Amino acid sequence: MPSFFSKLRARMTRSSDKLGEAIDTVVAPPAIEETPPPAPSAEAPHTPPAPAPAPAPSKPGLLGRLMGREEPRREFDDAMLEGLEEVLIAADMGVETSLRVAANIAEGRFGRRVSPTEIREALAAEVARILEPVARPMPLLPQRPQVVLVVGVNGSGKTTTIGKLASQFRAAGKTVVIAAGDTFRAAAVEQLQVWGQRAGVPVMTAPEGSDPASLAYDAMTRAEAEGADLLMIDTAGRLQNRADLMEELSKIVRVIRKKDPSAPHNTLLVLDATTGQNAVAQVEIFRRIADVSGLVMTKLDGTARGGVLVALADKFGLPIHAIGVGEQINDLSPFDPEDFARALVGIDG
Ligand SMILES: Nc1nc2c(ncn2[C@@H]2O[C@H](COP(=O)(O)OP(=O)(O)OP(=O)(O)O)[C@@H](O)[C@H]2O)c(=O)[nH]1
């Protein structure tokens, strides 16, 4: 089985190599690497053409340069600093974080000749340093049931993430109950049932349009009666009417607290990486309407916007429990800051 890193790297490579390539362009613009074509030979004007025509000069990529002897180096100057800032902002790292990260990379390098690889490595180290403190799996507690409220806008990947998490908890020997708390959307409930089947976990549902809080209460009763280890509650994600959503979530919290005053033990906010900076706004909103305790970022496969995770870590310091890298049940992985940082900047291994 390929290591998770190679899987992450392969999936993020599709698009996030853009960041690595952009760094290469800033540090060693192709123009300065080009070697002039050989001057036409004066001494042999009548020499017949060479048997095999020379291949067209191709642009040396990083690999090509590494295979050759020396990587091009260029002095770290103001233009390079600005270029780096722009590249990081374009990668969705957020303005503040980008400026600070670029400044940190510049420190000790200003006026020195640097190579693209050195800058990629330095960036990976900076990113990993920011991510390290927030990379924490969702804690498993002795409380039974441990109640996990899952919030996030529609389409962010809540249902999929609940299914993937339930499957992982099951594999770890835990018993899980899921409550389909988005009672207003029949399709959402059906989707959750499908995921419940895949994960081998019961999904409690309620008639369309019924009160999600009363479903949460019933689910709590069942989870307690069955001695379940975890109760995961899906919720609606309609942000159009924030006041309603807030009331709905706080009602769910109120009723489950009647049974366990310490619940919910975790409130996971699921964010879609492809929304880029919008994810920052979503954290701000959901922190106001729910007591968010940790994040899961989905759809990191095939997006060039993974840098937003760095911005989130830097800005909010909320734990990042896991990342989604695909639509299948096993495509949720623990968040490893170093692997992520290296995959983000396009470093192999
Ligand atoms: N590529 C990719 N797709 C994902 C990932 N996580 C979820 N998806 C897809 O994103 C879409 C939305 O996911 P859902 O889990 O239905 O999202 P939701 O937040 O529950 O949305 P609603 O059901 O509308 O409330 C689905 O097509 C999923 O297959 C991921 O990590 N990678």
UniProtKB/TrEMBL annotation:
EC numbers, comma separated: 3.6.5.4
Residue ranges, annotated region (Disordered): 1-65
GO cellular component: cytoplasm; plasma membrane
Keywords: Cell membrane, Cytoplasm, GTP-binding, Hydrolase, Membrane, Nucleotide-binding, Receptor
Start and end residues of each SRP54-type proteins GTP-binding domain: 145-346
Residues annotated as domain AAA+ ATPase: 144-291
SMART domains documented for this protein: AAA, SRP54, SRP54_N
Membrane topology of the entry: Peripheral membrane protein
Cellular localization per UniProt: Cell inner membrane; Cell membrane; Cytoplasm
Record function comment: Involved in targeting and insertion of nascent membrane proteins into the cytoplasmic membrane. Acts as a receptor for the complex formed by the signal recognition particle (SRP) and the ribosome-nascent chain (RNC). Interaction with SRP-RNC leads to the transfer of the RNC complex to the Sec translocase for insertion into the membrane, the hydrolysis of GTP by both Ffh and FtsY, and the dissociation of the SRP-FtsY complex into the individual components.
UniProt gene name: ftsY
Matches recorded under InterPro entries: AAA+_ATPase, P-loop_NTPase, Signal_recog_particl_SRP54_hlx, SR_rcpt_FtsY, SRP/SRP_N, SRP54_GTPase_dom, SRP54_N_sf
UniProt: GTP binding residues: 152-159, 234-238, 298-301
Start and end residues of each Signal recognition particle SRP54 helical bundle domain: 58-131
Biased composition (Pro residues): 35-58
Lineage, highest ranks first: Bacteria, Pseudomonadati, Pseudomonadota, Alphaproteobacteria, Rhodobacterales
Protein name in UniProt: Signal recognition particle receptor FtsY
A GO biological process held by the record: SRP-dependent cotranslational protein targeting to membrane
Family, per entry: Belongs to the GTP-binding SRP family. FtsY subfamily.
Source species, domain of life: Bacteria
Pfam families: SRP54, SRP54_N
Substrates-to-products reaction catalysed: GTP + H2O = GDP + phosphate + H(+)
Assembly: Part of the signal recognition particle protein translocation system, which is composed of SRP and FtsY. SRP is a ribonucleoprotein composed of Ffh and a 4.5S RNA molecule.
GO molecular function, one term: signal recognition particle binding
